[in-house]
Amino acid sequence: MPTLLAPLHQHWHSGKQKMASTKKVFDLVIIGAGMMGSAAAYHSSQIPGTSVCLVGPSEPKVRKEHEIFGCWFDEGRICCRVHEKHTWSVLSSRSIQRYREIEKQTGLNFYSNVGNIQCLEKKEEFESLLQMNQQMTASAEDVSKKWNDIYPFFNFPDDIYILQEKVNAGHISPREQVRAHQTAALQHGTEIVRKIVSTVTPADNPDYKYAGHRILF
């Protein structure tokens, strides 16, 4: 999904935030406080002289009453360095390298460095992963002939191809990652507003409490 950048000087409001007397204007307002928005707030907050506001509700405590459903309301997301596409491999590797730094900064653990295996039926797809592994110097290993000794509790077909990443791979908790990114953003001065945005309107409208020179959706 492409990122949309609204024109200069826009307001947003939640339908209940009309308050012209104490308007706050930020350099950047980020709408959506999930995995992408929270990470964007963290990185944007490190730009010197940039004021950042992150807008989005918390995960509802009672699911039946929620107004929106976030893609980060879960506890397991696989992460690894070797992908079919080079772009994904580079972005994944850079992200994984930052996980421990963010955990240390915030005191929130979201990354389990337990390794990863990929199982493929087609030889050409497996060879493509091996080439990407070499290109990325990811230290993954072909265990197609010895997986049964390593993982006796699995039951794979004899003709399966298996790539194992022992380190710098595993899984993350999306909930805790969002918490960590938001905590780090707060540490750098970001303001978080726990509201659902209903409207974005030009800045010549004087009725709303928050405004941004840039709006990131």
Structure characterization notes:
InterPro entries: FAD-dep_OxRdtase, FAD/NAD-bd_sf, MTOX. This is FAD dependent oxidoreductase domain-containing protein. The protein contains 5 helices and 12 strands. It has 217 residues and is α/β, with parallel strands linked by helices. The protein has 2 domains: 119 residues, 3-Layer(bba) Sandwich (FAD/NAD(P)-binding domain); 96 residues, no CATH class. α1 packs parallel to α5. The radius of gyration is 22 Å and the shape is elongated. The chain starts with 9 loop residues before the first strand and ends with a strand. The N terminus is likely disordered.
Q: How would you spell out the order of helices and strands?
A: EEHEEHEEHEHEEHEEE
Global structural class: alpha/beta
- DSSP helical segment count: 5
Proportion of strand residues: 15-25%
Calculate the mean pLDDT score and round it. Answer: 88
Regions with little confidence, pLDDT below 50 for 5+ residues: 1-9
From the N-terminal CA to the C-terminal CA, the straight-line distance is 11 Å
CATH topology of the largest domain: FAD/NAD(P)-binding domain
Q: What is the overall shape?
A: elongated
Task: Summarize it.
29% of the residues lie in helices and 23% in strands. It has 217 residues and is an alpha/beta fold.
What brief labels describe this structure?
12 strands, three-stranded antiparallel β-sheet, FAD/NAD(P)-binding domain, six-stranded mixed β-sheet, disordered N terminus, 217 residues, alpha/beta
Could you give the topology of this structure?
Layout: E1 10-13, E2 24-31, H1 35-44, E3 52-55, E4 77-79, H2 86-106, E5 111-112, E6 116-120, H3 123-136, E7 141-142, H4 147-150, E8 161-165, E9 170-172, H5 174-187, E10 191-193, E11 199-202, E12 210-216
Parallel strand pairs: 2-3, 2-12, 3-10
Antiparallel strand pairs: 1-11, 1-12, 4-9, 5-9, 6-8, 7-8
Helix pairs in contact: 1-5, 2-5
